[in-house]
Design a protein that fits this description.
Chain A is an alpha/beta fold. The interface between A and B is large, with 45 and 45 residues.
Chain lengths: 426, 426
């Protein structure tokens, strides 16, 4: 790889998500040369992907180019490529654009979809992990209504207008809320000659309740809010197959749908070659309290790809943006300390709480000491998400979009640009 | 096609460009049922496509959904589909979603690229006719700089950083100006470790001067402005082939480039089946002074797809947005008159002039009675384009983007979303 060699140790960071970006921003480049690698030239703000899917926000409002973020950092290099292999013996990573040597390697590659080995689901469901996924889902949803107008076959119309979301975590719940608002407030204007009562939104969740990691009270409020919006929720249910547009489950229910949205299982995603590393639950690389991979030298794993296993965190930490960001900041500081020969301190997670929104005016927020719901929670949810967005421009664009939507009930343009085509088996 | 049959004559309009949209907006739906068909669910403001290509504007700021435009029109139906065939004997059009009968047919399908039979150019050049084209070109341009960083082969770097534009009409000239601004003002911040002097922008034009249809004086000003921005212009030159990343011409010049941009020949684009119609210059359907196709009943051709041949316009009219818009308004009124049994009047084109911009602060404008250039022309260019955009939202978005760009020299985010892949021969 075409990176100048200078007289400083080189840190290579793979992945410009919440964790990797913090390392790149906070590392002391008087002490290190930093190389950041990502397969996209932008950072994606994943928590708002669902609003891109539901055509509420445009891609450019939740993505921010890595080069712009790193404009002013010296000794910092970004490269757009895919990492193919890590050679921990030689401290080299192999990429499509050549090899590169590292002194310290930071793997912050996040998570990918876990379809639990079901090829039909893997091929035909629509995931929600990337901007491309979100745009595909958007054009699928909008395209389905155009198609529904043109069929007189009622069964076909139903499968086009039924949406089945698997997983009732924040992504599933928030997307269900956004689809319900499309159905109730927005699509009736776009499709006056389509009977939108045919449109059904189903959420399937294996756990006994929605937003399972949150407090029971929050789950109940979210459940009630979704029900009120007309969303059908099937808990303690899991999908067994998806064939010929029929979703089958472990229970009696089956669902006819052209659109199965996968917001359920994820697993750690990282390049091959870490043979000496231990892999734990959720296909995540086990690390110690210092985010260092066990059994491998000079390799740190941050965010969803890693799983701390220590006395302090015997169960590890959840796969959340806040864990990833805090680990990124922690590791940058730890490496800066290391360069000054200061003693290492372990990572301690500061759990600030969690939240989810269920359509207009409604959210559930859980902070350390108390929890609340409703309109004020929704304001908090919006404020926190705006502040976490990268770039002043994007904050303004998202804020203006939200305000416009709030007062005009007409969010975004709903363009079908570069339509999604369902893959066929090769 | 699933359209209700009512007791009014049905007008079917194919194409929601400048012409088709005006017909749909202005037709009297107390007198007619209107069906509008387009293969995209949005109207594209083609004059600003080049700014999407150069990452100055996002797609959603120059496209507007057809359903939103027609929200309040009664007896008006839009369908997203491709027209496969026209049967003028039976007055039926065949589409992917079924057949539909028309009483009056309006063909406003515009133009497509004319590669003059060269398969290599057709396959490997990048056109600029649609939003998809513009996004492909954008990701190609940005991706090439990422690749250029990673090669030590100087010849390869040159071909990645050379851009050859064929055609010095408004599109070619405006894109060349925008690329020059990327080179001079924007990319140096994004790519501090890339020597941007390597980047070359060539414009190849068969005519003896740029902006050939405009006055000589405007051509000279545009030429001088492009030269000042560092653009290389080759007039009286035409491209003969594009193979192995080499553009060959009729002259001595050949150009090594990974990116050949086709802003040259276009030809009328319309569905098959108009066998009785006469086809004229530029593969356009010949019409009379009333925009009615010669030799066919009840079929009107508007905009780029049609070519008026009459005493008044023996040479026809140019392929311009203003012609298309005026024809759309004219035909709607003519059909409204027809419904009231009023006498038909011929179409008369009101030539308001033409204009082009060449980067920041510079444009050439030609009005009926006088012409001017420079900063004031640039303001006029911006004002006219803003006013022609569909939708208040898009006017605001484009205006804010332009102002931001003007004062901050940092237009847009330059995201590579869904990268372009060069096609290979099947």
């Amino acid at each position: 790889m075409n990176i100048p060699t200078i007289d400083l140790p080189r840190i290579v960071v793979i992945g410009a998500g919440f964790a990797g970006l913090q390392v790149a921003k906070k590392i002391d480049t008087n002490q290190y040369q930093l190389v950041l690698i990502d397969k996209n030239n932008y950072h994606t703000f994943q928590p708002l992907l669902y609003q891109v899917s539901s055509a509420g926000l445009e891609p450019d409002s939740i993505a921010y180019p890595i080069r712009k973020i790193l404009h002013k950092k010296k000794n910092t290099f970004y490269r757009l490529t895919n990492v193919e292999h890590i050679d921990t013996e030689k401290s080299i990573i192999k990429t499509a654009i050549g090899d590169i040597f590292y002194d310290q390697l930071v793997i912050a590659t996040g998570a990918t979809n876990n379809f639990f080995g079901n090829d039909n689901i893997a091929l035909h469901s629509l995931p929600m992990k990337s901007l491309t996924d979100a745009l595909n889902l958007r054009s699928k949803i909008l395209g389905n209504f155009e198609k529904a107008l043109n069929t007189t076959d009622l069964e076909r119309r139903e499968e086009l207008m039924n949406f089945v979301i698997v997983g009732a975590g924040p992504t599933g719940v928030e997307l269900a809320g956004a689809l319900a608002e499309l159905k109730n407030k927005i699509l009736p204007n776009d499709f006056p000659d389509l009977d939108l009562r045919v449109m059904k939104i189903h959420v399937i969740e294996a756990a006994p309740r929605v937003l399972a990691p949150m407090h029971e009270n929050s789950s109940e409020k979210a459940f009630a809010a979704l029900r009120k919006l007309g969303v059908h929720i099937w808990t303690e249910t899991f999908v067994t197959d998806y064939k010929d547009n029929i979703v089958t489950t472990n229970g009696d229910q089956s669902f006819r749908t052209d659109t199965l949205i996968w917001a359920a299982g994820v697993k750690g995603d990282f390049p091959e070659g870490l043979n000496a590393a231990e892999i734990g639950r959720g296909h995540r690389i086990i690390t110690d309290d210092f985010c260092k991979a066990k059994g491998v030298d000079n390799v740190y794993i941050l965010g969803d790809a890693g799983l701390i296993q220590s006395e302090r965190y015997p169960q590890g930490l959840p796969m959340l943006a806040s864990v990833a960001m805090q680990q990124g900041v922690y590791l940058a500081k730890a490496l800066n300390r290391l360069a000054r020969n200061k003693k290492a301190v372990p990572f301690i997670y500061n759990d600030k709480g969690s939240m989810a929104t269920i359509g207009r005016n409604k959210a559930v927020v859980e902070l350390k000491k108390f929890r609340f719901q409703g309109f004020f929670a929704w304001l908090v949810w919006m404020f926190v998400h705006l502040m976490l967005l990268v770039g002043f421009r994007n904050r303004v664009v998202v804020f203006v979009n939200w305000m416009w939507n709030y007062f005009r009930y007409n969010n975004g343009l709903r363009l079908i640009v570069r339509p999604y085509k369902r893959p066929t088996k090769a």
